[in-house]
Amino acid sequence: SEDTVESSGVKNTSYHGSYGHRGRGMKVRSGVRRGRSGGYVRSTSPQDFKKKEVRAYGIDCEMIEVIMPDGKLQQAVVSIGIVDESMEVILYARVRKPANSAVVNDAFVRTAGGLIADYDKGLSIYHARDLIQRLVQEGALIVGWQIDNDLKALGVEKVIPEKQIIDLTRQFVTTNGHKCKLIEAYRTVFRRNFAAHNAGDDAKVTMELYHYWNEAAKRQVVTIDLMFYCVNWHYFKLGGVGGLSRGDVLWRFLRPRTSDREVVIEEDDGKNAYKLKFRLKSDRDAYLLLVTRRLDSSGILPQSKPVKIVMGRGFETDYGTFRKHVYETIR
Q: Could you tell me whether strands 73-84 and 2-7 are parallel, antiparallel, or unpaired per DSSP bridges?
């Protein structure tokens, strides 16, 4: 009979029969020779010295901010996902927060991550550390998106050799060389969305991008063509709208429906410019429609048709009490 055993990606084949005799039905293959004791042993061949394939594991963590008994603020892991190259989930679990710590901010995890706010249940973080350290000791690559934050929160940032860490934010960059979001890179490369901010799903998505970078891109930096779809409100004339202040105008008319930075980035200089940078054109279009309805209901109408700005910098509309500049910029 022939027994085949898989061990760390290396196939070992052993042969059984009448020890010291070539029994009927026994398979003798190239690479097998007669030993001194009369048994059959494998001879050395170049294939026996093939380099062991390096494994890779995608890791993602969800974190909250806590205050420790000594008054120190820190990020605490409350969920972790680990997948291997074949997208099999090695670990997806809740992780309990440090003992005697108090939650300071968990809004992101509760809303985007969908976790119930019970952070005293789950695995001890030491179990997650032990698993990661064992994978590293076996020579595995640890792959992540902004993985420095995850490794620091896990407390393993100093025990993993730099050569075994692959941070994909350095491999998928915008046209101008800036970092981008995980969902933006994934959407651009694969032309589809995913359920972001679940640690298990994010780990899988990270591994998909790793395969693309490692195989299709041949480990070259991948350029992600992205735009910011901007709206800049400026040239405010305070008191021009029913005696309202600039802050009142921003709140009543110009604020976006959401302040989620995954959707829009707000930049307010407190004096003149209030700029919104949307990641998707559809989100900017929805915002502009919402603002138009707000302004129309209060009788605030454009004083003129939109004017095209030279050098391809979009269009500007004058409302009398402020101006609206709509344009795009390459990231």
A: unpaired
Distance separating alpha carbons of residues 40 and 146, to the nearest angstrom: 52
Pseudo-torsion of CA 238, 242, 243, 249, nearest 10°?
-50
Whether 1 shows a pLDDT value over 90: the answer reads no
Q: How far apart are CA 162 and CA 308, in angstroms?
A: 50
pLDDT of residue 230: 98
Integer Cα distance of 304 and 128 in angstroms: 61
- 80: tokens are 């972790």
Round to whole Å and give the CA distance between 150 and 127.
Answer: 15
Element (DSSP H or E) covering residue 152: helix 147-154
Q: What is the pTM of this model?
A: 0.77
Is residue 313 within 8 Å of residue 232, measured between CB atoms? Answer: no
Q: What is the pLDDT of residues 206-235, one digit of tens each?
A: 999 999 999 998 999 999 999 999 999 999
Q: Are 91 and 129 in contact (CB under 8 A)?
A: no
* Separation between Cα atoms, residue 183 and residue 206, nearest integer Å: 10
